[in-house]
Write a structure and sequence with these properties.
The protein is an alpha+beta fold and about 400 residues long. It has ten helices and twelve strands. It has a five-stranded antiparallel sheet, sandwiched between helices. Strands 7-9-10-12-11 form a five-stranded mixed sheet. A two-stranded antiparallel ribbon has the order 6-8. A hairpin with a 2-residue loop joins strand 9 and strand 10. Helix 5 packs antiparallel against helix 6.
Length: about 400
Amino acid sequence: MIRDPGSGISPSPERLLHELRVHQAELEMQNDELRQTQLALEESRDRYVDLYEFAPVGYLILSNAGLITEINLTGAALLGTERTKVISRRFDGFVAVADHDRWHRQLVHALHHPGRHECELTLLRGDGSKFAGHLDCLQQGLEAAPVLRIALADITARKRAEAELAMTREALLRANERLLASNRDLEQFAYVASHDLQEPLRMVVSYGQLLEKKYRDRLDDDAHTFIGFMVEGGARMQAMVSDLLEFSRVDHIGGERDAFGSSDALAETLFSLSQVITEARAEVSYAGLPEIVYNRHQFVRLMQNLIGNAIKYRDPAHAPRIKVGARHDRHEWVFSISDNGIGIDPTYFEQIFAVFRRLHTRDLYSGTGIGLAVCKKIVEHHGGRIWVESCLGAGSTFFFTAPDP
């Protein structure tokens, strides 16, 4: 008979039955926890197997002799062979003959040097077709002999894209070289043609003026009119040739760039425009202009063209009010020239910077249509940009950038 050691009294059958039931319940709970733990482990294993087998890259393990001892389903699919037919085969059997030596050097190096080692090889599938493979190799010790773990990816699409990009880049470089050569030829032609046209045009204008002066009393009205047309046309052609010559010279000016105060250069500009400013009763204000590194002559010419245009295309109902400013934006200065003139239709924002592009007839506004093209070329010659913001009847603001000193 069982006795309670503490009291010397044997427990009752009911108590014994209760204790047995409690113990049985505890065992059932432990068994349930064990079953749940086992189920979780099996689910985790299944997930791991799926991740391993169907990973986006192939996983292989090679022996130190280069034999495939393990490979996932993705790796077997990349090699185009059933997994059972891959195991125990030499990996170099899937390497193109031309890359055999490189692969053997890679294998020896990776097996004897810890850390990751990458290489690209031309690989063969089971059907003999080729693909570009990227191998990420890692040496790991396994008992006495090291093994090589490899992550294998098919980079055929990437290599094809790289080849196409290289071909496109090469084609663009060749096209750019041809374009640069063509531009140099055109600039040289424009320079020579403009320079050689100057003297004949001067002769036409000068002799036309002498003819009218010497034979003034002997010519009728029609002759005077014809001579006037000839002289006017010649003078206009002289102006166009002169502007074209300046346009072609912009890129021929060397790297004579100096640091100077743009406010001083603007004062020089306004002095050269003083007669035009006075006749138009124009007011030009400026403040806060920085020191820049620029070709001073070209900067003055740039400002002359922009301020001259602001005066030329003024609103007849108002005296011209022109404001020049500058603000710093990251690694450059942004200059602005604002006016209260007639404005520009946004449709023509790009066209106005083209050579000989005019938006008005010569009867309304004089000029050759080259001024803004010269401005654009000067700004771009210094690595900047030029653009305009405007609308009809509300004035215009021209912007251009200049690099930091």
